[in-house]
Design goal:
4-stranded antiparallel sheet; two-stranded parallel ribbon
């Protein structure tokens, strides 16, 4: 399990969120709370100037986690904290978990309402737990000329609107979850629950971006591995039989 990560050694984050819910770094800070620039944040957080990993984290905390939302975090309290990075992450989670939802932009969208490539709403909510949703947003297969299932995992706010998409639990994804504060013990439990819901529906997430499950240690990932081993053994047996 992973919790309260401060993964400064992860790869540089490439925004994996679908275009319609993409972080656009155009958010504004709330009145009376002056958001610092990246350099000021890095200094206060004890980060190293010129370190690309630290710069990436700082940029994400200042702009990336906000996107087109209004930044309602109390930057005065954050910058006065003994641990600026941890405080910024906690404030980000508190903002998105707030029932006030005064940060939400008019462009906010629920994951299940994301449009497919033809501009039609084909998505559907498969399962939800805590601040996570697992949705199907079909994509068009030009080879078969049919729409095929495409499953996606999203972090959502208290109202169910998309905050970020998770393409797979890579180091980058985990770091990005840490940056928005959704990496607590409760969130790990929610992901376990979500995975169990999806498995009960007969969906093998190992075939859809999550070969090792949502947390990298799931029963589903073990099932996938065993299935692959069984397939390989069957192929080997067939080959041996053909040589007899």
């Amino acid at each position: 399990d992973w919790a309260l990560l401060d993964d400064r050694n992860s790869s540089l984050p490439a925004d994996g969120i679908l275009q319609q819910v993409q972080c656009s770094a155009t958010g504004s800070s709330s009145a009376g709370s002056v958001r610092p620039n990246i350099a000021t944040f890095m200094t206060a957080a004890g980060m190293t100037t010129g370190n690309t990993e630290d710069f990436s984290i700082a940029s994400d905390m200042i702009y990336g986690v906000i996107g087109s939302s209004k930044d309602t975090r109390n930057w005065g309290a954050i910058m006065a904290s003994a641990n600026v990075l941890q405080a910024a992450r906690a404030a980000t989670r508190a903002m998105y978990a707030s029932t006030l939802q005064d940060y939400r932009s008019p462009q906010a969208i629920k994951p299940e309402d994301v449009l497919s490539s033809d501009g039609q709403k084909r998505g559907s909510l498969i399962a939800a737990s805590g601040y996570f949703k697992f949705v199907n947003i079909p994509v068009y297969d030009s080879t078969t000329m049919t729409w095929r299932n495409s499953y996606n995992l999203f972090v959502v706010d208290s109202g169910g609107y998309a905050v970020r998409s998770i393409s797979g639990l890579t180091d980058k994804d985990r770091r990005e979850l840490a940056d928005i504060g959704f990496d607590t013990t409760a969130d790990v439990a929610a992901l376990h629950d979500l995975e169990a819901q999806v498995a009960a529906l007969g969906i093998n997430i190992g075939l859809y971006r999550f070969p090792n499950g949502f947390l990298g240690n799931s029963a589903q990932s073990n099932i996938t591995a065993l299935s692959q081993i069984a397939g390989a053994l069957a192929a080997l047996e067939a080959l041996l039989n053909s040589l007899k």
